[in-house]
Design brief:
The protein is built from six helices and eleven strands. It is α/β, with parallel strands linked by helices. Helix 3 crosses helix 6.
């Protein structure tokens, strides 16, 4: 079934956004709202949803899909988007599709580059604090080469491998610098990059419904630094 009308939500990291993509008589149309926030994701999301739906002139019953980012990100902020998606899906009886915040960032980075990355990869490296980064790498078309990881700067740099890589996100400068000091090929771009629901709305057509939709955390919310703890972890 072709996805027609999609409401997309993102609250995972340092911004809140909502977007509606729908099919008009003359082609695809999109309405979005986006705001940088350090806190208060829940307070901003619902007005944004109302804004984009009103701007699109759509009733919630006209939606075919609800799309949401599931993490990684802040413990509370990730849950804001997922809770909203669950509630909307329950109210409309529509399926939820989901992907990572990092995949949406890779899609946005490729859009901002203005051309396909070719043989180069896009690595998203988002500063997660404590000297660690949320990291995921992608080939052209935001196709993931592996799962999201929580890595130190050194581990992220080592994971680049022999591929020419464009590193994006808040960890781009430090990771790319370490790669280059080791003789590797890495170009830092878009260090202020955040996920955007507009890109998720475009991606939604290629995503499979998930039920139940669950958050992706790479670090327990009550974790404390420990010398005995492994520095590289995969999602449980």
């Amino acid at each position: 079934m072709e996805v027609m009308n999609v409401l997309a939500l993102d609250t995972c990291l340092g911004a809140v956004s909502a977007a509606v993509r729908w099919r008009g008589r003359d082609g695809w149309l999109l309405r979005d709202a986006y705001e940088w926030v350090s806190r208060g994701h829940a307070e901003r999301l619902m007005p944004m949803i109302a804004e984009v739906m009103e701007g699109a002139g759509l009733e919630f019953s006209a939606l075919d899909r609800i799309a949401v980012t599931v993490g990684p990100g802040g413990f509370s902020s990730v849950r804001v988007g997922i809770s909203a998606a669950r509630a909307l899906a329950l109210a409309t009886s529509k399926p939820v599709v989901a992907t990572t915040s990092l995949a949406v960032m890779a899609h946005r980075a490729e859009e901002m580059l203005g051309e396909p990355p070719g043989a180069r990869r896009i690595m998203v490296a988002f500063n997660a604090g404590r000297g660690e980064h949320y990291v995921q790498s992608f080939t052209a078309g935001a196709v993931a080469t592996g799962t999201p990881l929580l890595l130190t700067t050194e581990e992220a740099a080592r994971s680049v491998g022999p591929h020419g890589t464009i590193v994006v996100g808040t960890g781009a400068l430090v990771v790319a610098d370490m790669v280059k000091k080791a003789g590797g090929d890495a170009e830092p771009r878009f260090p202020d990059l955040q996920p955007h629901a507009r890109n998720l709305a475009v991606m939604a057509a290629g995503l499979a419904p998930v039920a139940p939709v669950s958050p992706l955390y790479l670090r327990p919310p009550d974790a404390r630094p420990s010398d005995a703890a492994p520095s590289s972890r995969t999602p449980s």
